[in-house]
Design a protein that fits this description.
This protein is α/β, with parallel strands linked by helices. 24% of the residues lie in helices and 22% in strands. Bound molecules: iron/sulfur cluster. Iron/sulfur cluster is lined by residues 4-6, 12-13, 37-39, 96, 99, 101-102. Iron/sulfur cluster binds next to α2.
Length: 148
Amino acid sequence: MLVSACLLGINCKYNGESNFNQRIAELVKEEKVIPVCPEQLGGLTTPRLPCEIVLRDGEKRVIRKDGVDVTQSFLRGAEETLKIAKMFNESIAILKTKSPSCGSCQIYDGSFNGRVIEGSGLTAGLLADNNIRVFDEDNYKPEIIDRR
Ligand code: SF4
């Protein structure tokens, strides 16, 4: 399975830290895990300014806090993550909640005010569109995976 690298303690988060999640780390320790950070795979630096998704003309754009449109880097990171999933024939991803890349149920609303809306990040969306089961860190439970 793919897992957001920051959940496993890798310091790839925008501020140079991680989002270590003890529960997820424990649940996946017996699994074959590929840690991925789509934003680093897309060529973004660490640390980096935070980014959020906004809708413009019905299209998702990713905007950095200083107003720069970084959608292309996020798309590239999503494509690279999908490439890794296909390379290793992975069918499950456990991703960080609310991220403009990894969020699968909720994302920030584009205002940089901490408000959250329903929606998905670019990587989570692309993986789901390619038949990969995407779980938010908060709703992943091993028993809900059918491994047949
Ligand atoms: S892109 Fe995903 S893996 Fe990378 S820091 Fe953001 S939430 Fe974590």
